[in-house]
Design brief:
It is built from twelve helices and 14 strands. By secondary structure, the protein is α/β, with parallel strands linked by helices. The longest helix is centred in the middle third of the chain and has 137 residues.
Amino acid sequence: MTPSATAVAPTEPSRHKCLIYDGDPSEQLPVVVPFLSAGLRNNWRCLYVGSPAMVRMVDSALTAHGVDTAGEVQVRSLVLSSDQSHLVNGKFEPQKMVDMLCGMVDEAVGDGREGLCASGDMLWELGTTKNFDRLLEYEALLEEVFRSKPLRGICQYHRNMVPAQAVHDALLAHRSVYIGEQLNSDNFFYIPPELLLERHNGSTATKQGEWMCQQITRVLEAEHKRDKATAALRASEAHQRQLSEELAEMNRHLERRVLERTAELETANKHLESFSYSVSHDLRAPLRSIVGFSEMLAEECGEALGEAGRKHLDRVLANGQRMQELIDGLLSLSGVIRAELMRVPVDFSRLAEEVAKEVREVAPERQAEILIQSGLHTTADRALLRAVLTNLVGNAWKFTAKVAMARIEIGQKKSEHGQPVFFVKDNGAGFEMQYAQKLFGAFQRLHTEQEFPGTGIGLATVQRIIARHGGQIWAESTPAHGATFSFTLSPPA
């Protein structure tokens, strides 16, 4: 049989709902309180009907929810009622109750409200249990009101107190049902009021058959959607498994490549270190000969060379000595890379004082202030950390040589993440920050030999020592306003 074209096929929950719960009456509150609160916010008159104890419970729950219950009651936005005047000699008359609710809806609209939000305990509203035999008629009549008037409602049924037949009838008459707090917006038990209210005759049987056909169609469509969703879920799970396996294989391949590349890099570094050490070491002997014979030539044949010859010889000696310094720097850098790291507790402040004393001995006549923060400690390779301070403090001493009153600070601060950061700060020549990335490369210098002597090996050595300690080093500066070199030392694993 083809479903009727006029059949009700809801796309959203009905405005006429029922709540079926068991246990303590307070179990209704998670549904009723938001329902009434939303109605008050949206300018609907709100009605709750129940026993005096239930009314007090709902009153307290609304107040706890932030509703000014007393104020809302005073302006008749909220009606809390235990009235049973709709019962005639204790007997429930469905049409009388429906007429009363229609009047309340019309009154609310007449007072400028959007309509009426009604909720009530059906055991209290219907009185004694013998009145439940007309519940099906009442709910069917009421459903027609919900279709025609601005009425929203939730009828409450306590599963353990309301007769089982009444709960069954409630399911038949409500399209949307709360089971506890869960809303079932498509109740398959629901039968439209036009079918419930019809007498059993030929036409009713036809309508009933059409409705059953519609229900079967809805069930089949729901099952089709379920099967389609299940198939899609299975396909998605299979695709996810495939992607997971592919990702795992990619990770395994990547791990192998990383291990291979790491081994290749370690081998290349060892060869490079060995080559650098060998070249530097092998260059020292012939360079010593060049410098030595140049010195002998200057001493024994200086007068015969004349003034121009002596100047040329002096340049040979100066460049030979500079090359000696560069080779010594390369050997020192190679030693830093090759040396085994021996971490021990280090009194950083005391070590800085030792280095500062050695630096002062280079030019004791200079007016300079060296401030060292006391009480600083760390864990590091003491010899390598001394090399760091010797280079940084030595640079600070060198680049403040042209300052009338030099000032060098050695101390510690905290990073934004709470990590200790050591620093060496001076008020010397400084440099342009755009060239800062060149500082830590071997033989990279930002000043000429005539301005400040040096090989450009010191900061490269410092950077490698800090890296071996798992830390970082960076510099900040403004020309003619000094520089600050900051570094971290990661704790041992």
